[in-house]
Amino acid sequence: MTVTRRTLTLGLCATSLLAACGNGVGGRGASTIDARVDATLSQMYADYPGTRDLAAKSTGMLVMPLVTEAGFGIGGGFGRGALRVGGATVDYYSVAKASGGLQIGGKQYSHVLFFMTEDALQTFRRSPGYAAGANIEYAIPERGETLAAETTTSLAPVIAVIFGQAGLQIGATLEGVKYTRIIP
After folding, report:
1. Phi-psi region at 67: left, alpha or beta (left = phi > 0; alpha = psi -120 to 50)
2. How far apart are CA 78 and CA 89, in angstroms?
3. Integer Cα distance of 157 and 137 in angstroms
4. At residue 179, what are phi and psi to the nearest 5 degrees?
5. From 145's CA, which of 2, 3, 13, 121 has a CA 20 to 30 Å away?
6. What are the tens digits of pLDDT across the range 120-173?
7. 14 pLDDT above the threshold of 50
């Protein structure tokens, strides 16, 4: 595939747009990330009470308080968060997304990965960069609705709950997601 000047320009514009959005987790300090994780969990539990049961059944949770995505042909996304095991932060992670295809717009959202088995949690922690894939079951609750029963009784090793969406991004894309351990 050759990269045309137009594609390169669109990619640079998308990157600039993403940088201009700022995902609100600009403070790199651990205390800032932990405070945002606490606020995100409080919001999720208040808005979607069924997630309390999901959290109680999980062996760990990766909480991304705010992920910002933008794209115009080529797009990307970024956020920072913390891995909690037994209610305590054990590591900090960033998430980076890349996408390409017919797309335009930007959005922000929060998400939590619930590791439902010890093996899934250990695979995540041992990997140098965990790529989200087909082994994750997604639950995207609508405002005012509870999570469907199958998400709390699922046998999936990892369940992702996405909530707090803001913005608009439309299109059809291919994308990849990678979680990387960071030192805040």
Report:
1. beta
2. 20
3. 8
4. -105, 130
5. 121
6. 999 889 887 776 554 444 455 554 343 433 343 355 788 888 888 887 777 666
7. no
Query: CA–CA separation, 55 vs 72, rounded Å?
Result: 36
Tokens of 122: 């250990």
Q: How many CB atoms lie within 10 A of CB 25?
A: 21
Residue showing tokens 């208040």: 46
Amino acid 50: pLDDT = 85
- H or E, element range at 71: strand 60-85
| Residue the block writes with tokens 């995540």 | 124
Question: What is the pLDDT averaged over residues 4-9?
Answer: 53
Q: What is the pTM assigned to this prediction?
A: 0.74
Eight-state DSSP code of residue 133: -
The DSSP output letter for 9 is H
Name the one residue in this structure whose structure tokens are 């600039």.
16
Longest dimension (CA), the chain: 51
Q: What is the pLDDT of residue 19?
A: 42
Distance CA 41, CA 147 (A): 15
The candidate with the shortest Cα–Cα distance to 131, out of 98, 161, 103, is 98
